[in-house]
């Protein structure tokens, strides 16, 4: 039963395209030599705490939880205690990741399972100075009814998920232990700074998109998408953006276009704040052959297109 559940959660939490940089294997059972302050506190309280890693993630657990090699694959780790399971998955995707988007995608699938019920809505949490999103839900029926705490983390192209899954009969008994393990997660995902800085040399500026609006991409990684060139803050969405010198999801190599991912923070219509439909939006920018300072822009998700004419 545990193996079937974990394989299902692996499918839900990540769509592996490249896998993580490290192959999952029997974890190192030594404590870290240079723990940060949070882990130092944990290791002081629990001298026998063990370390396990997957890609650029490390967690710390005690020997009452067993590393389950049979359920651990190239891009996943599994730890069990009785019928409870802690599963970790990772992947490198072809577009920038947002943990809320990851959780929503998995919920769209798991919500079709028999007995599914969302117990706690997705919320942003901080774990060792990194932002994760977390939700809690149940699925299954009768003796096979499970409760799951799912956490997701995303940074540029890298996606990570940690889940605690247990039968209802022992979910509460092991919940605090599981949360301590999940709370020990340390992330060291590399940034994409060099590619972003190179892309910004061509992208930073102001663009008139005609009926599509007026877009400002700033050098500090912030953006504003106004209704028009008046830059009226009563009609705008704004936030941060990431970018790259290639568009991996469209198989467009360096030199032929740019990738831009918008992460909206506010969406204002008629002076009132509204909800955006997604926590991120992916775009491909292709320089126009007759005017290389301008771009043909494609929304990669819904395939809507724009002409961005450079103003500044």
Automatic annotation (TrEMBL):
Keyword Signal (UniProt): yes
Signal peptide: 1-19
UniProt keywords, alphabetically: Signal
Keyword Signal (UniProt): yes
PROSITE patterns in the record: PROKAR_LIPOPROTEIN
Protein name: Uncharacterized protein
């Amino acid at each position: 039963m545990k193996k079937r559940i974990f394989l299902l959660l692996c499918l839900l939490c990540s769509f592996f395209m490249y896998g993580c940089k490290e192959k999952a294997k029997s974890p190192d059972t030594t404590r870290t030599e240079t723990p940060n302050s949070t882990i130092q506190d944990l290791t002081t309280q629990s001298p026998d705490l063990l370390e396990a890693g997957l890609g650029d993630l490390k967690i710390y657990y005690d020997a009452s939880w067993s590393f389950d090699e049979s359920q651990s694959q190239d891009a996943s780790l599994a730890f069990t205690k009785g019928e409870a399971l802690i599963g970790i998955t990772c992947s490198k995707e072809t577009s920038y990741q947002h943990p809320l988007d990851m959780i929503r995608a998995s919920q769209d699938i798991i919500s079709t399972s028999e007995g599914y019920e969302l117990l706690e809505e997705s919320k942003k949490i901080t774990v060792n100075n990194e932002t994760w999103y977390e939700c809690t839900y149940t699925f299954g029926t009768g003796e096979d009814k499970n409760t799951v705490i799912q956490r997701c983390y995303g940074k540029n192209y890298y996606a990570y998920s940690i889940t605690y899954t247990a039968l209802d009969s022992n979910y509460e008994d092991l919940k605090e232990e599981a949360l301590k393990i999940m709370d020990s997660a340390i992330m060291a995902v590399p940034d994409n700074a060099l590619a972003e800085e190179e892309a910004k040399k061509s992208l930073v500026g102001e663009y008139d998109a005609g009926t599509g609006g007026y877009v400002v991409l700033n050098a500090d990684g912030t953006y504003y998408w106004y209704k028009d060139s008046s830059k009226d803050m009563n009609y705008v969405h704004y936030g941060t953006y990431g970018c790259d010198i290639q568009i991996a999801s469209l198989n467009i190599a360096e030199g032929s276009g740019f990738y831009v991912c918008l992460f909206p923070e506010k969406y204002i219509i008629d002076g009132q704040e509204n909800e955006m439909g997604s926590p991120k939006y992916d775009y491909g920018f292709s320089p126009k052959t007759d005017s290389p300072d301008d771009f043909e822009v494609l929304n990669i998700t819904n395939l809507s297109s724009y002409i961005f004419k450079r103003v500044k």
